[in-house]
Structure formats: structure tokens, C-alpha cells
Amino acid sequence: MTGGHASGQGPGKLKRVVFAGNGYTKADLTQAYAKYRCAEMAQANKKPFFIMYESLFAAAAERPSTTPRVGLVHNKPISTVFMLMLDAPRPGVLETAVVLQELGPIVNGGPVASSTQGGTQ
Predict the structure, then answer these.
(1) Domain range spanning residue 18?
(2) What is the number of other CB atoms lying within 10 angstroms of the CB of residue 2?
(3) Is 49 domain-assigned?
């Protein structure tokens, strides 16, 4: 496995996003890539907000997360998240543009943005 991302349809309006790292990728970086991919998908669908859930159980219980769940497959980190794209804010929402701005430098290898504002509560 060399790493990479995959996305697909989850139940209902949920989308499933996965990012797998290689043997040199740290777990927190796979989380950043998965979160960034969620924001890219929301932007492509013209949705200014999205919510992430670590699992289907968390989605059913309406327990949003600010980071994807991370685990190991063959000793390589993999981050998985279910996301819901939204037109309007609600509790636990992340702003698509803010996530793209903050994580863009990390994902694209540039300087990290100084803002720590990650979403709206």
C-alpha cells in the first residue's frame, strides 16, 4: 500500500471519506488529508458547511467530530470519516472555506496558516 484517498456514498446523505498513509505518514497527517478531502468535496458540491462523524453510530447519535477517526492497517495509518454537506450552519459544523484555507498549506506543502478558527459551534 502506498497510500491515497477514496470516497463514496454512505447511507442516506452521508459520504464516506478515507485517507490511507504509507509507512512514513504520521496519523495526524492522515487526519488532515481526510478532513481536507471532505472540504474539497463540499466545495465541489457548492456546500459552505459540512459535519464530520467518526462512525455511523456517531452520525445516528448526532455526535459530530472535528477530526476523522484514525486506525492502523498493516502498521500504516488510515483515517475514516462520514460527512454530511450542508447549506446552513448548525452545531458541530465546519466551514468549508476555513478548512481549505487552514489545511491547504499542510496538504500542499506550504507554510501553515496562523488562524486557529476551525468552524462554527
Answers:
(1) 4-108
(2) 8
(3) yes
